[in-house]
Specification:
Strands 1-2-3-4-5-6-8-7 form an eight-stranded mixed β-sheet, with helices on both faces. It has six helices and eight strands; from the N terminus they run E-E-H-H-H-E-E-E-H-E-H-E-E-H. The radius of gyration is 15 Å and the shape is globular. The chain is of the alpha+beta class. Helix 1 packs across helix 3.
Length: 179
């Protein structure tokens, strides 16, 4: 557990045994989260929520990713993750999601800062990326608050809910983070 600097807000590992809580959280925030984040579609029932969390448990065991939940007053309200972690290349990709009731409190920024700090200082990553739909202004604002640099836009990069999306790539390098 790690405090997020706001009373009652904590960052904790999110594990398969918490699938029911994760699914209930997705149900509360499905429409909001699903605007930009595939978790809303991937965790459509309890079994798929469990598979999603098991996939991240497998990534943690293989040292290729991690997932952490954000709890506010002991209620799961969002999270941050290392979607990709390539130790040999020194590169990781951070992602996030949050249900609407928890927005505007700085929880994602603080949680992502803890995760980035860990992956750079403890795991030795050189580059940390933040990939975000060009339409996701709140997530872009987090990347900016974290001091990331916009590397560019991958135009019409991937289909999301049958609409091709532009994907912005933001990054921070270890020397920039540590200064």
């Amino acid at each position: 557990m790690k405090s997020l600097g706001t009373e009652g807000a904590e960052l904790r590992p999110l594990e398969p045994w918490q699938a029911e809580e994760f699914f209930a959280h997705m149900e509360r925030g499905r429409e909001f989260i699903g605007q930009h984040i595939g978790f809303a579609d991937a965790a459509k029932d309890l079994e798929s929520a469990r598979r999603l969390l098991q996939g991240y448990a497998d990534k943690a065991a293989a040292d290729t990713g991690r997932i952490f939940g954000i709890w506010l007053d002991d209620k799961l309200v969002g999270g941050v993750l290392l979607r990709v972690m390539d130790v040999s290349q020194g590169m990781a990709e951070v992602g996030c999601w949050l249900e609407p009731a928890a927005t505007g409190r700085g929880l994602i920024t603080r949680a992502a800062r803890i995760l980035i700090d860990w992956v750079i200082r403890e795991r030795g990553m050189h580059r940390v990326e933040w990939r975000v739909s060009s339409k996701n202004a709140p997530s872009i604002a987090v990347a900016q608050r974290l001091g990331m640099t916009k590397d560019g836009v991958l135009r019409s990069n991937h289909p999301y809910r049958d609409v091709r999306q532009d994907l912005e790539v933001w990054s921070v390098l270890a020397p920039e983070w540590e200064s």
